[in-house]
Structure formats: C-alpha cells, structure tokens
Design goal:
alpha/beta, 11 helices, 34% helix
Length: 342
C-alpha cells in the first residue's frame, strides 16, 4: 500500500536467471548486483527501478497481486499460475530465451504413443477400478489437456522432487513435465507422446495491469522497457549494408534498387552524395547507399547491389533498431484502456 518504487522481478536461479540477465544487458539494461547472494539489485539505466530475484511461480503471483510491477518468467508458469486473473498483462511473449515445451511422457516399454492410446489405457484402468496417475507440477494445464482428449479417470500427483523418476518407482504411470533437449527423458527411459504437447514456452515480460493504469511512472517505465527490448530484438534479425554506386541522381539509383528483390530497406534506401577529400576533384556521379536488410537475406542483397554497380560493400550487424512507437507498446495501451468486462 502506498508503494512508490518500481519493481521488476527476475528468476532467482537457473537457466532463466542467466538468460534474463544476459538478455537485459544486451538490451542496454544491465542489472547491477554487487553481491550475487543479495535478492535485490538495480538497473542504472532505469532510475527508480528495483530488481528482485524470485522463483518463477512467485514472480507470476507477485505481478498478479501487485507486489511487483513487472516480471520476466516463463510463459508456461504464467499460463499455470496466472489463470483467473485480469491483473496480469503480457507485454512481450517472445523474448527469445528459455525455450521449452510441456509434454506428456510415458515409459518407453509401454505401447502408448498418442493421446488416444492414453484415453484407452485410462478407460481400461477405470473399468478395473483403478485410475490413471499423472505426475506433474502443472495441474491446471495438464488437467485441461486430459479433459480435452477425454482421458478419464485420472489422478494428478504433485511430487516435491524430480518427476522423471516417478514412473520407475511406481509413484505414477506417466508424467507431464517441461522438456528442453529431451536428454533427461531419454536417460530415464521415457518417451513423449506424439501428440502430447501441452504448451510451448519461452521467457516473457509481464506487468500488473492495474498499476499500469494508476501510475504514470510505471507506464513510462513499461514504454522504456519495450523500446529497448523491441529495438534489440528487431536488430538481431537485421544487418546494415553500405556501398558506393555511380549514377546520375539519388532518385535514379533508388529506382535501380527498388527494381531488385532485397534492396528496399525499412522505409527505402538512403542515398547520399560521396564528397571527395579534395572537393575540387569530387566526382558528383558517386553516391553512398545505405539499407537495412533481414539477416537471412544478406548475401542475396549484397549480390543484387553488386549486380547494379555497387562497390566497396560493407555489412555491419545492427545493435538496435528503434521504431517511432513500438507496436507492443500500442497494444499495451489498448489493453489497459479496454473495460474489464469486455
């Protein structure tokens, strides 16, 4: 009550924590944490921001309850822990790190390969007075998937420790767990069901919707976060290409470029005169062209430039590409302005 600071919660350990710290630093938002054992830190480039380190599930609860304003955690945890709440707003759902999937997996020795097979197995167990036992730490998402495929009867079990061992020790018949590489499943002789994907997940940025509405400083911070995140992510997929080219005018050179497939740039190429060191000897027919191209199209763009007379071609990675107004910021404004009962 009456809190005036701005809080961002990050995962307290593991791959998600390492990914979040690296990601924010790459975005120009380095987290300053002088003591790695402390659970508070700051972001020098965001004045007034307090960084807290919490468990992924606690981050969702904190944002939901308004004890923290922003959080970076897995979208799997948001889907599980954020249900039934209009307070959580996903500002960015594709931060590009922490990828995993939530899958059903059964012992390799069992002839169960699909959800239909699982439904038949559960039915046979039910007819014998037994129930299918599923070990999971995602009861909401798991139950939704089982109900959707009419797998019944079933019982959800929430063990404290590692799930993969549950079928081997007879604690459960199968598991619903997060999978990254699949190595842990194979090491424990488990096999994912062919159509047993419950959810695909990666790190996401969430915020408390009510706080965004009520506090202008939090809303401004949300824009700053999205500005840097979007500019960084957009730049990762782009390269800047610069070349010299002869032509009678910038318009004539631009026309040549527009006739190619990959030389349109973001809003169009930049074409400027090349001024020699000795202006009296300057050749006015030389121009410098500059374009931004998708990473996957760099070599095609370079070849097209050379084919239309480009020389001295330089390719440079982009650090940030800022838009006039980030699309996700506009989407955030629309979401917080929307009435709750819509």
């Amino acid at each position: 009550m009456g809190r005036e600071d701005i809080r961002l919660a990050l995962p307290s350990k593991g791959i998600l924590q390492a990914g979040a710290l690296e990601f924010l630093e790459n975005c120009g938002l380095r987290v300053f944490r002088p003591n790695p054992r402390q659970y508070e830190a700051s972001i020098p480039n965001l004045e007034g921001m307090t960084v807290l380190f919490q468990r992924p599930g606690d981050i969702v609860v904190g944002v939901r309850e308004g004890t923290v304003d922003f959080g970076i955690t897995g979208s799997d945890v948001v889907a599980e822990k954020g249900f039934g709440s209009n307070n959580i707003l996903i500002l960015h759902d594709q931060l590009g790190f922490g990828p995993c999937t939530l899958n059903f997996a059964v012992p390799e020795a069992l002839p169960i390969r699909t959800m239909a097979d699982l439904a038949q197995w559960a039915g046979k167990l039910g007819a014998a007075g037994q129930t299918l036992r599923v070990a999971t730490k995602f009861p909401k998402l798991t139950a939704e998937m089982l109900d959707r495929h009419q797998v019944k009867p079933y019982t959800l079990i929430s063990p404290e420790g590692t799930l993969e061992i549950a079928p081997a020790i007879g604690f459960a018949d199968l598991i619903a767990d997060l999978v990254s590489s699949g190595t842990t499943l194979r090491d424990n002789h488990l096999r994912p069901l062919e159509d047993g994907l419950i959810l695909s997940s990666e790190a996401c940025l969430i915020a408390n919707k009510g706080t965004l509405r009520e506090r202008a400083d939090v809303l401004n911070t949300a824009r700053t976060l999205l500005e840097f995140i979007e500019a960084y992510l957009r730049a990762q997929q782009s390269f800047q290409i610069t070349a010299n080219m002869r032509g009678p005018s910038p318009e004539a050179i631009a026309k040549r470029m527009f006739e190619q497939t990959n030389l349109g740039g973001l809003q169009g190429p930049t074409v400027a005169p090349v001024v020699a060191h000795n202006s009296q000897k300057s050749d006015s027919s030389w121009f410098a062209v500059n374009i931004i191209v998708p990473k996957a199209k760099v070599f095609e763009a370079v070849n097209e430039l050379r084919q239309i007379g480009g020389s001295g071609v330089i390719v440079t990675p982009c650090a940030y590409i800022f838009e006039e107004v980030p699309a996700r910021y506009q989407a955030m404004l629309a979401a917080i302005e929307k009435p709750e009962d819509d």
